[in-house]
Amino acid sequence: KNQVEQSPQSLIILEGKNCTLQCNYTVSPFSNLRWYKQDTGRGPVSLTIMTFSENTKSNGRYTATLDADTKQSSLHITASQLSDSASYICVVTLTTSGTYKYIFGTGTRLKVLA
Amino acid sequence: GAGVSQSPSNKVTEKGKDVELRCDPISGHTALYWYRQRLGQGLEFLIYFQGNSAPDKSGLPSDRFSAERTGESVSTLTIQRTQQEDSAVYLCASREQGQNSPLHFGNGTRLTVT
After folding, report:
1. pLDDT, position B41
2. Average pLDDT over residues B50-71
3. N-term to C-term CA, chain B
4. Do B106 and A43 touch (CB under 8 A)?
5. What is the mean pLDDT of chain A?
C-alpha cells in the first residue's frame, strides 16, 4: 500500500534552535518527494523537491535529504524563527501510465516559541 | 502573478442543503486537483482534471459529491444534501505540465455544516 508517514506529529522548539522532521514512505513507482509548508488558514506551499538521484538540497534555512534505499527523507530547519510555526507536509509523487498521483503525509505541526 | 483563487473562503450551511465551491486555477495550468482536509488530518484526494481528458473521480467519497471543469479554467465542486461529516477545508490546487512541477494551492474554502 502506498503510504507516507511523518514524525513527530507535533514539535515545540525555542526560537533560534534547529529541528529535524522525518518522512518515511512506501510508494512505488517513486517519482519525486516534495516538502510543503502550510501556515494556519492557508494552502500548502512548496519548499523543496527531491528526485531519485538527489541526496540533499537546501533552500535558505531549510535542508532536505533523501535516502532512496531506505525510503526516508528529512527536513532540517536551522536557526528557527517564529514564522516557521506551521505544518510541514511530505508528499511523494508516483507516476503511472503518464498520470501523477500524490501521496500525502499527515504532517508535522511545528510551533516555535519566543 | 495571481495564484489559485478559491471562493467563498468560508461557508456555513445547514445540513441537507447543497453547496458549490469555486476554484480559479493559475492561467495555463492544465492540471487541477480538489482535496479535503479535516481538522488536524492530512489532505484527502477527491478529484483530478487534466486538460480535456476524463477526470479521475476515484477520491469522491459519495455520489453527493461532484465536480466540473470547463476546459482549463474554473472548476466547481458541488456537495449535495450536505452532512455534518462534510465539514472540512476544501483545497484546490493547479499544476503546469511536467512531473517535477509543484502543486499550487489556494487558501481553501472552510465548510461548516450545522
Report:
1. 86
2. 92
3. 37
4. yes
5. 94
Distance CA(A78)–CA(B79), nearest Å, equals: 43
Q: Which of A5, A104, A109 is best to mutate for the B interface (most B CBs within 10 A)? A: A104
Sheet containing strand B65-69, edge to edge, reads B5-7, B19-24, B75-79, B65-69
Q: How many CB atoms sit inside 10 A of residue A48's CB? A: 21
Nearest to B103 by CA among B51, B25, B21: B25
A60-98 pLDDT, tens digit each: 999 999 999 999 999 999 999 999 999 999 999 988 777
pLDDT for the residue numbered B1: 57
Shortest CA gap B45–chain A (Å): 8
Q: Does A42 touch chain B (CB under 8 A)?
A: yes
* Locus of grid cell 501556515: A39
Nearest-angstrom CA–CA distance, B85 and B2: 32
Asked if A32 lies within 8 A of B106 by C-beta distance, the reply is: no
In contact, B42 and A107? CB cutoff 8 Å:
yes
Interchain CB distance below 8 Å, B100 and A49: yes
CA gap B92, B43 in Å, rounded: 11
* A49 CB within 8 Å of a chain B CB: yes
Q: What's the grid cell of residue A5? A: 508517514
The verdict on whether omega for the bond into residue B102 sits within 30 degrees of 0, i.e. cis, is no
Tell me which residue has cell 527523507.
A73
Given this model, what pLDDT does residue B39 score?
Answer: 87
